[in-house]
Design a protein that fits this description.
2 domains; eight-stranded antiparallel sheet; 15 strands; lipid transport
Length: about 400
């Protein structure tokens, strides 16, 4: 039976590093501060002048000032005959390809003289919630507990125009059905407007609790040439080079047509061309991979790391000056976010005391009863043999 709830993703975070290239991390990273995750209105509903634990880097990039008019959809949405108008607007605002912005401005918005609007990665979502989820409570079928029945009143998505790509599979990744058997886990992520799967990698110990680590399947962002199921995620054959580009997901269909592309951090698992177009990228599975650590008996996710990179697309133009030297369509990284959380010590101790210890005790009792049963059976067998032997002697 499905149950209904509203999910609002609120958590405490801080940002570290500015936008200049300072070694391995050339983009700001978000790391969850709360353990476990707890609501933090001061972080989620306030602008850049946030107080701790939200600490904002106020240093700016060293690149020249500009606007992101084309970056936020103007370039891709404006027909080519109107590129001359866009060029005039860019010149009037004295814009160039890159700009100086603080991390706070990038996240919560800044005034753009060209668009006359507040532009920011998080500003459209500030004070909002993710929508209503109908999920199965497991009363009739425990193997479906936590599975999403519908999201925002729909049992399928309306983004991709394909039955397969529009499927809402599994849970929201916060928990899964109990008694995991190391098979792939499926979950829906509204952040990327699609369902994905994670495969078992290894068993490991987390604060004295055995957990299964699941990582994103390699075929999740594979090109349709490698994984034909991803054909419906290929939205533009020119940009994706006839759908051979791997490692990025075109989000324009669920972002009002904006040329936004989602990938793993540093284009991890992506095509070599993505890395060749941008300097300073060093993909590393340990630092840039996404994983879930799930307790197999309960199905609860006790630790996770979600590392997503937001990219924008720009391409060549014979009219727009700042794009005349651009030779090909380029997917350019803006920011990558490292959202991590882990069960706290108190909750881990509670789980071990109330669950793990009792399960271990039941296992000991089960083995003891089995051993006792075997011992009784052996004694009965010996007694039977002795009695039969005595009866034979009497006869």
């Amino acid at each position: 039976m499905p149950r209904r709830f509203c999910r609002m993703e609120q958590f405490q975070w801080w940002w570290r590093k500015d936008l200049t290239h300072t070694g391995q991390d050339i983009f700001p990273k978000r790391t969850s501060h709360s353990t476990p995750i707890t609501p933090s209105p001061s972080c989620c509903h306030r602008a850049p002048s946030l107080t701790p634990p939200c600490q904002w880097e106020q240093r700016k990039t060293k690149s020249p000032p500009s606007t992101w008019a084309w970056l936020y959809g103007a370039y891709s949405l404006v027909p080519k005959p109107l590129h001359a108008v866009l060029e005039s607007l860019i010149k009037a605002s004295k814009s160039s390809l890159f700009q100086n912005r603080t991390v706070g401005e990038m996240l919560w918005g800044y005034y753009d003289p060209l668009l006359k609007d507040n532009i920011g990665l998080f500003s459209p979502y500030n004070g909002t919630y993710d929508g209503i989820y109908n999920v199965f409570d497991g009363k009739d079928d425990i193997s479906k507990v936590g599975f999403i029945d519908s999201w925002r009143g729909e049992s399928v998505l309306q983004f991709w125009g394909d039955k397969y790509c529009d499927m809402i599979n599994g849970t929201d990744a916060s928990s899964f059905p109990p008694f995991l058997d190391k098979k792939p886990l499926y979950f829906f992520s509204s952040d990327i407007c699609r369902s994905v799967s994670a495969g078992f990698e290894q068993s490991m110990d987390l604060k004295g609790i055995k957990v299964y680590r699941y990582v994103l399947q390699p075929n999740t962002l594979a090109s349709p040439k490698v994984n034909p199921d991803n054909q419906c995620f290929c939205r533009n054959e020119v940009i994706t080079k006839n759908c051979t580009l791997a490692g990025v997901l075109d989000m324009s269909s669920c972002q009002a047509g904006r040329p936004i592309y989602i990938s793993l951090a540093h284009f991890l698992g992506g095509s070599k061309s993505l890395l060749e177009n941008v300097k300073g990228l060093n993909p590393n599975e340990k630092h840039h991979g996404t994983y879930l650590d799930v307790e197999p008996t309960t199905g609860f996710t006790l630790r996770f790391a979600k590392r997503i990179q937001v990219n924008m697309m720009y391409g060549p133009s014979n009219v727009i000056t700042v794009l005349k030297k651009v030779k090909d369509y380029t997917i350019f990284p803006l920011v990558w976010m490292n959202e991590t959380a882990s069960v706290d010590d108190a909750t881990a101790d509670m789980l071990k005391k109330e669950l793990i210890t009792r399960i271990e005790m039941l296992d000991i009792i089960q083995k003891a009863l089995l051993g006792t049963g075997v011992a009784i059976f052996v004694l009965c067998l010996i007694s039977y043999c002795v009695v039969r032997r005595n009866q034979s002697k009497i006869v």
